[in-house]
Amino acid sequence: MAGKLRANVFVDSVWLDDAFVRLGSDLNLRVRLRNGGQQAAENCQTKVFIGKQQAASFRVTVPAQQAVTTSARIRLMESGVQACRVEVEDYPVDFDNAYYFTLQPAQQIQITEVGTETKLGALYANEPLFAYQFTAAQAADYRKLSAANLLVLREAPVVGAGLRENLRRAVQQGATLVVVPSAVSSSRESYGQLFRELGLGPVQWQPTAPTPPVLQDIALPNAQNPFFQDVFAGVNPRAGMPKAAPVLRWARSGTDVLRLRDGENYLAGFPSGKGQVYVFSAPFSAPYSDFAQHPLFVPVLYRLAMQSYRQEQQPAYRLNQGVVNLRIALGAGSASEPAYRLVQDSLIYIPVQQQLNGMFRLEVPPGMRQPGFYNLQTKGKTVATLAFNLDKRESDLRSYSAAELRQLIGPNRSNVQVYETGQGQTVAARYKAQRVGVPLWRYCLWAALGFLLLEGLLLRWNRRTVPVAAPAVAA
Fold this sequence. Notes:
Elements: E1 9-16, E2 26-35, E3 41-50, E4 53-62, E5 67-75, E6 82-89, E7 98-103, E8 109-115, H1 121-125, E9 130-136, H2 142-147, E10 150-154, H3 161-172, E11 176-180, H4 188-197, E12 203-205, E13 216-217, E14 243-244, E15 248-250, E16 255-259, E17 265-272, E18 275-280, H5 297-307, E19 317-318, E20 323-326, E21 341-344, E22 347-349, E23 353-356, E24 359-363, E25 372-378, E26 381-389, H6 402-409, H7 427-436, H8 441-461
Parallel strand pairs: 8-9, 8-10, 10-11, 11-18, 19-26
Antiparallel strand pairs: 1-2, 2-5, 3-4, 3-6, 6-7, 12-15, 13-14, 16-17, 17-18, 20-24, 21-22, 21-25, 23-24, 25-26
Helix pairs in contact: 3-4
C-alpha cells in the first residue's frame, strides 16, 4: 500500500539577478522552493539569513511535486565571504529545512590595454568595478596579461611572437580578448598569425586604397541580443548610428554583436579555449571609424568588460556532485600530507585534489555527509569557504502502490520483484515464503534422530541370551 501523504518543502536553488555583488547595494535574491511531497504546503514560512542576521522573511504556498520561485531583497554590508542560509519551516519532515550558500562582493575586473598609448584609461576609470592598466605592445608586461580578465589589443602596429603566445595562453585559461585591428599594411601578417593561433582561421584583408576610406553605417543593434541586455536603457540608437570602414573580414561564423548596413560583420565573438575572442573589423581611430565618439561606445566596452568576469566560486554545492572546481591562489603543501583540507568544526576531510592551469579540482570525500559550511584550509589558513547541501533526491517523498511500482518497473525486468503486505504477513515473511521456501532442515534433523532411536530400540529388543556350556566330567 502507498505511504502516508505529506508535504515536504525544501530549497531547490538560489541565485542573484545581478552577477556583480556590490557592497551596500540592494540585491534581488531568487529562491526556488520545491515540494517533494504529495500534499500541498500552505503558507510555508521561509527566512533568509546573512550570517546571524535575518535579512528577509516571507510565506509561500507550494503545490505538491511542483516548484515556486520567489524573490527577496537583501544587502551585503561587510566585505569578505558571507555565510548565508535559507530556512524553511515545515513539519514533520525537517531534515532538509536549511539550505546553505555563500555570497561575496565581486572583485574588480582586471582590464589590460595593449597598444602604442593609453586610450581607454579614462573610460574605465569612471567605474569602481574596473581596474585598468596599460602595457606597450612592443615591450608587453606578461604578468599584466596573465592577471587580466579583459585584454584589449588596440591597433598595435605589430604583434610579436611573445605577445601572441601570452595572449593565446591567457585566452586558453579563460580571459576575454578584444582585437581592434591596425590599418597599417605591415601589421596584417602578425594579426593573421594571431587569429590562426586563436582558432579563428584565416581572415580577408581589404585592399589598401590611396583615397580616404569610405565609411559605412553600422546597422541598428538587435535589442533581443543578450549582449545588449539593459544597454539601451540610457542610449537611443535611433538618434544615429556610428560609421566605419572595415579593413578585414572573417569567414568563420561567430556570435554577431554589430553588423554593417550591407550585412558584413563589424563586431563578433568567437569561443577559444576557456575564453572568448571579440574582433572589430575596423580600427577605432579616424578616418576609419567614429565609433569611439558615439554614445554606444561606452556601453559596448563596458559590456565586453562585464562579460569577461569569471565567477571564482559557486554560491552552493551538493554533497553528491562528486567534483568541485575552484580558482584560488594555490600554495604548496608539505611533502608528508596533502596541501588542502575541508574542515567543519571538529570534522576534517582530506579530498582527492589536483592543481592544473591555476584551477583547483577536489573530489567530495565519500564520507562527507553533513551539510553546512566547510573551510578549505592549507597549513591552518582558510583560503575559501564552501557551502554544501544534501542531495535533492533525498527530499522526494513520493510513494507508490504495488501496482504503480509494477507498472514503473515494466514486464522486462524479471530480476525485480514487488512484494506487498497483506493477510497478516510482513514483507519479509512474504519474501521468505515466495523466494526462500519452507526450511526442511529441521524436519531432516528430527527424522535422523527418530531413526537413531528406532535403531537403538531394535538392537535392544532383538538381543538373545547365549547358553553357557556345562563343564565336562571325567568318567
